[in-house]
C-alpha cells in the first residue's frame, strides 16, 4: 500500500490535505503532528476512524521520532506542512520558528536521505519529499509584477526567513544527494479549520461577538487569496505529476487589500447572519458589521503586496482553482458560523484573539 506521511496534518492546510488524500487516493495517510496551539486533533475528528488513517503525536525536530516514522511506516511520500506560520508570533518569539521550520525540516530531510538510500531501486524511484512553503520567502512587491518560481528570495520577517532557509535545505538535498524533492510556494490560504489568529477567521469571530475589527496600518496591504481546497488539490497534483527537483507556485489570482477582504467579510456575514439579528452587536450599540472596523498600528516590517504568477503549474500540470474569492469566502463564513464549537475548543486556554507582533527586542 502507498503510504503518505503528512507532517503538520492536524493544522489548517494539513488537515484539509489529509481529507483530500483519503478521498482521492488509496494511500494510507500517517499524520505526524506535535499538536502545538495551532494543531488540534479536533480538526481531524471526521477522519479519525478511517481505516487508512494513522495519527502519531511527534515533533519533526525530534530525530529519534522522525527515524521511527520512516522505519515503522515505510512511506512512499512525505508531505511537509509542519511549520510555525504566524508572522506576528515570529516577531514576538522567533526561536521556535527556527527550531521547527529550519531544524525540523533538516531532520526530515536527513532521515529521508538515509531511508531512501536503503530502498530497492523501484521503491526509491517512487519516493517523493514534497515541502510546502509560502510566497513570503520572496519578500514584497511594488504596485505591479508577480512572484514567479525564478523570483530571488528576500524574506522580511523571521517567519519568512525560516521558511526560505527550509526551502534552500530542500533544494540542496536534491542537488547534493539526489533526494527526489518538490517544493510548492503558496499565497495566503483561507477556508475551514484555520486557527483564529489569521485575518479571515479572526475577523469573522470578532464580528459575530461584536468586537472591533483591527486593521493594520492603512488597510492597503495586498495579498493573493487562495481557497485551501484549491491549494490542496494543487499539492496533490504536484506530488503526482511534478518534475523531481522542481518548484511550483500555487496562487489564487485573487488580489485584495486587507480593507477589501474585511468589507467582503462584513457583506457575507450580513447575508448569512444580519447585524440586526445579532444580539452581541446590538448590546454594544452597533447596527452594522462595518461599524466595527478600527485602525491599529501596523505590523513591523509589514510586506506591502504579494501576488503569484501561476503560469507554470497551470501550463505544466493543468491546475486551475475551482473557487473564486466570493465563492470561497461565502463557504468559509458559513463554515465558521456552523462550527462555533470547534472555534471555542481550539482557542480555549491558548488564545483569546489578542494582538501579537508589536514587541521588537
Amino acid at each position: 500500500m502507498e503510504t503518505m506521511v503528512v507532517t503538520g496534518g492536524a493544522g489548517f492546510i494539513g488537515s484539509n490535505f489529509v481529507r483530500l488524500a483519503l478521498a482521492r487516493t488509496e494511500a494510507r495517510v500517517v499524520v505526524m503532528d506535535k499538536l502545538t496551539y495551532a494543531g488540534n486533533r479536533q480538526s481531524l475528528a471526521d477522519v479519525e476512524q478511517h481505516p487508512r488513517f494513522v495519527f502519531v503525536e511527534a515533533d519533526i525536530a525530534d530525530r529519534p521520532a522522525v527515524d521511527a516514522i520512516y522505519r515503522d511506516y515505510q512511506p512512499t511520500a512525505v508531505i511537509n506542512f509542519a511549520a510555525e506560520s504566524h508572522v506576528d508570533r515570529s516577531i514576538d518569539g522567533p526561536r521556535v520558528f527556527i527550531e521547527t521550520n529550519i531544524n525540523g525540516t533538516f531532520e526530515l530531510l536527513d532521515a529521508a536521505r538515509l531511508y531512501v538510500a536503503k530502498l530497492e531501486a523501484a521503491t526509491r524511484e517512487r519516493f517523493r519529499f514534497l515541502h510546502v512553503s509560502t510566497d513570503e520567502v520572496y519578500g514584497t512587491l511594488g504596485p505591479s509584477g508577480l512572484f514567479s518560481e525564478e523570483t530571488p528570495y528576500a524574506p522580511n520577517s523571521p517567519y519568512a526567513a525560516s521558511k526560505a532557509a527550509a526551502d534552500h535545505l530542500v533544494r540542496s538535498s536534491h542537488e547534493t544527494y539526489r533526494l527526489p524533492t518538490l517544493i510548492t510556494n503558496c499565497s495566503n490560504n483561507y477556508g475551514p479549520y484555520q486557527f483564529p489568529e489569521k485575518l479571515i477567521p479572526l475577523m469573522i469571530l470578532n464580528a459575530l461577538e461584536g468586537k472591533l475589527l483591527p486593521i493594520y496600518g492603512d488597510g492597503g496591504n495586498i495579498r493573493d487569496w487562495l481557497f485551501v481546497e484549491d491549494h490542496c488539490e494543487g499539492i496533490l497534483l504536484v506530488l503526482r505529476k511534478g518534475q523531481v527537483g522542481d518548484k511550483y507556485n500555487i496562487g489564487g489570482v485573487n488580489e485584495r487589500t486587507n480593507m477589501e477582504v474585511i468589507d467582503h467579510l462584513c457583506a457575507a456575514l450580513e447575508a448569512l447572519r444580519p447585524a440586526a439579528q445579532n444580539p452581541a452587536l446590538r448590546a454594544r450599540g452597533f447596527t452594522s458589521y462595518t461599524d466595527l472596523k478600527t485602525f491599529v498600528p501596523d505590523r513591523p516590517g509589514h510586506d506591502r503586496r504579494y501576488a503569484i504568477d501561476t503560469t507554470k503549474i497551470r501550463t505544466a500540470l493543468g491546475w486551475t482553482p475551482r473557487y473564486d474569492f466570493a465563492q470561497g469566502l461565502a463557504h468559509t463564513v458559513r463554515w465558521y458560523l456552523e462550527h462555533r464549537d470547534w472555534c471555542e475548543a481550539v482557542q480555549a486556554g491558548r488564545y483569546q484573539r489578542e494582538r501579537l507582533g508589536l514587541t521588537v527586542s
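The chain has a mean pLDDT of 95. The longest helix spans residues 95-117.
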